[in-house]
TrEMBL record:
InterPro entries: A_deaminase_dom, Ado/ade_deaminase, Metal_Hydrolase. The keyword DNA damage does not apply. One of its GO terms (molecular function) is adenosine deaminase activity. SUPFAM superfamilies: Metallo-dependent hydrolases. Belongs to the metallo-dependent hydrolases superfamily. Adenosine and AMP deaminases family. It holds the Pfam family A_deaminase. GO terms for biological process: adenosine catabolic process; hypoxanthine salvage; inosine biosynthetic process. Residues 18-366 form the Adenosine deaminase domain. This is adenosine deaminase. GO terms for cellular component: cytosol. Its EC number is 3.5.4.4. It is an enzyme of class 3 (hydrolase). Keywords: Hydrolase, Metal-binding, Zinc.
Amino acid sequence: MTEEDFILPDGVDARRLPKVLLHDHLDGGLRPNTIVELAEEIDFELPESDPELLAKWFRDSADSGSLPSYLATFSVTVGVMQTAQALRRIAREAVVDLAADGVIYAELRWAPEQHLGRGLTLGEAVDAVAEGIAQGIADVEATGGWIRAQQILCAMRQAHRSDEIAELVVERYDSHLVPGGVCGFDLAGPEAGFPAADHAAAFDYCAEEFVPVTVHAGEADGLDSIESAVLDARALRLGHGIRIADDIELHDEDADGTFAQLGDLAEWVKNRRIALEIAPTSNLQTGGVPSLAAHPFNLLYELGFAVTVNTDNRLMSSTTASLELARLANEFDYDLDDLEEFQFAACEAAFLPVEDRDRLADRVADGFDEARI
């Protein structure tokens, strides 16, 4: 990436803008040099030992057009994330890197069940990430910056531990106001063939305990996946969710300006403000869309859906929150008002108390006002 990649159509550097990030995988955002160093400590074999070549390997391997192939790269990152020391370091570095990119709030998601290979318990793994996030926040504040970050715990949909992870989320949810605390539950992993309905008990428990839920749905599978996420999981947000466009029928513009007919599911997602955690570059890599120009992001935005802009996996997609904004702005000719709306939508959907969401929106507004000067 070059400096020009960050420049918006109006000449503003996207890194100057305050950003709210709802969908960023902890195990998808490691620094390549950190992977190399951690691998050496535990004698873990890497496909490349040079950090630059390793970064290229991740990029090339993820750019496959297949979600299962994309997910296969995580065997490397997860492989070096099996100790408390490694989890603390990676979480701290993630917070520092996000803050350097202008992110002021991030919900970092990860699946604790995948990090028990060297003796950690689920609770110890979560504690280590919380400590790393807190350290990262302190590092940012020490240099005059500001960021807030929380954890979302994922259950893997192809596994059988969702009830246990839901219990862990509920147990730790009272920490969601503490830096690095757990703020929600997610279902991740291969989407096709693993509907949210298979994990109904976990979602019922979260609902009974008033814990917010987001679900990966509508990325590699269609409307049935989204419907299951909405009805069976009571999801407040959809991870990606771009296949909701399949429930929208376009036609010639009517006299009143209407150009689309929404199906019942699309109407529900739109009208209930179920936020779409969209990660454009990742959607291209996993084959969700053939090109950025063909991405339904702009259509969904024009129709009034709660669209948010996310990174998904910064390492695999070789991206940042600023790059995602710049790519969208240059493709669809968005101005600062549009980009600000995406941040407001993310503030509205954040798994925070309403007062905190309002304060976060105020920070966004102040930062965009400064960028307009």
